[in-house]
From TrEMBL:
It comes from Bacillus solimangrovi. It comes from the Bacteria. Residues 448-511 form the TRAM domain. Residues 1-25 are annotated as: Disordered. Its main location: cytoplasm. It catalyses: N(6)-dimethylallyladenosine(37) in tRNA + (sulfur carrier)-SH + AH2 + 2 S-adenosyl-L-methionine = 2-methylsulfanyl-N(6)-dimethylallyladenosine(37) in tRNA + (sulfur carrier)-H + 5'-deoxyadenosine + L-methionine + A + S-adenosyl-L-homocysteine + 2 H(+). [4Fe-4S] cluster 2 binds at residues 229, 233, 236. Residues 215-445 form the Radical SAM core domain. Catalyzes the methylthiolation of N6-(dimethylallyl)adenosine (i(6)A), leading to the formation of 2-methylthio-N6-(dimethylallyl)adenosine (ms(2)i(6)A) at position 37 in tRNAs that read codons beginning with uridine. Keywords: 4Fe-4S, Cytoplasm, Iron, Iron-sulfur, Metal-binding, S-adenosyl-L-methionine, Transferase, tRNA processing. It is found in: Cytoplasm. This is tRNA-2-methylthio-N(6)-dimethylallyladenosine synthase. GO terms for cellular component: cytosol. Binds 2 [4Fe-4S] clusters. One cluster is coordinated with 3 cysteines and an exchangeable S-adenosyl-L-methionine.
Amino acid sequence: MNEQQRKETTKIKQSNPGDKKSLKEKTSEDFAKFFETTYVAPSLKDAKKRGKEEIKVHRDFEIPEDMIGVGKDKKFYIRTYGCQMNEHDTEVMAGIFMQLGFEPTTTTDDADVILLNTCAIRENAENKVFGEIGHLKPLKQKNPDVLLGVCGCMSQEESVVNRINQKHPFVDMIFGTHNIHRLPQIIREAMFSKERVVEVWSKEGDVIENLPKVRQGNIKAWVNIMYGCDKFCTYCIVPYTRGKERSRRPEDIIQEVRQLAAQGYQEITLLGQNVNAYGKDFEDMKYGLGELMDEIRKIDIPRIRFTTSHPRDFDDRLIEVLAKGGNLVDHIHLPVQSGSSEILKLMARKYSRESYLELVRKIKEAIPNVTLTTDIIVGFPNETDEQFEETLSLVREVGFESAYTFIYSPRDGTPAAKMQDNIPMRVKKERLQRLNQLVNEQAAETMKNYIGQEVTVLVEGESKNNSEVLAGYTEKSKLVNFKGPKSAIGKIVKVKINKAKTWSLDGEMIEEVAEVN
Ligand code: 5AD
Ligand code: SF4
């Protein structure tokens, strides 16, 4: 923690804000007055600033002495919303809980500490979290000793912290994305002082390498390669909630992947909000995602993926390395957001329809069998029918095999939120429906081509709907269901496809694959 963050780290003494009103009667002004001396709110305005200070790497995380064993006979429960980055942060927090002596539990009913690791990307993501906080109120009333915490991206927004202060005073802890390594101290405050703890840093901290992790499974693993995002697309809250771009050193990443390989993991996904900017912040060397992938592909692990890509920084070196194939899967998720150059400009994506298509051409030339998937936003301010048609035509032209599609959701503090949100919801919904229909058609079309083909499937477990059936994914991320022995779980097997649905394939297992490279 640097000096500034030390100053920012403040706790709220909320149990007695110094007046006689009940919590229900207090207004936001009451809270604001009370917080003035003891509380520094997260500020999106501060979060926007990109300082030049050098990012240091720390390897000195440890559990404070007085917290060792504090979780004995206690259980923790973390509910995760949003992207893989959040899922991975949850793995780190689970690791810290375990080091404190807590055990995990799968329900809120018997948990001593409950954390909601939240997502701020769209309004409906936030509404889900507020709904859940409301559901947890009776549990808190029944058992006031349970500690309830809100962390993740939503905590980085002052509006969210204010709303929790006003409407959900039973929340015990609020902390953000930049200080999850402070979890032991935050829990200590909340446990022993019985006062609400708010500790949200507006600005990112250094990179901490030796945080513990409890991974969700033993088949696939996420490996962070960088934190933050400096792209500032006009609709997106992430550069504010996740801070500036900070890359992990290649040797740390490679060591982590090697360890995972040694532990038997079959698939690694390299994670970052904008992985193509990997290494741009290194001052001592020219080293990007291409170089990193070129080293990681030599590690003996069957599948390597990465997410998420920004087309702007997707360079020729990376394409050249991906074309080497082997354990680098031939599936690239390449968010386009819109097929209209005018809308892309309003979004500040810093590429045009033409340059995106040129990138796709280069990728297809180098990796002829590549599968491309994408993210698309419909109903961005001022999007005309014609511009939306351009998105449909781009989806056809590229031949995306699937897409995550979203209705634009204004996020407070972003430049787009100041634009007039002038597309009626009815039109947004119609556009989304038409887009989804096209994406579904293309997905179904691709799936049909698999009938009669053999695919290699990394078996993840029993199918959700039928315990008799196993389920797993191909290199191209197609879900495959088939009958097979439970011993195949965690392995890569060959399956012959006999039936295609829009989003999954059915088949028969042929054999186990010892080597895929
Ligand atoms: N509204 C709707 N969708 C959004 N996304 C990001 N911000 C917004 C927003 N304000 C989508 C983008 C991004 C994906 C993770 O979420 O498509 O790629
Ligand atoms: Fe949601 Fe983005 Fe935060 Fe991930 S980084 S949880 S997608 S807001």
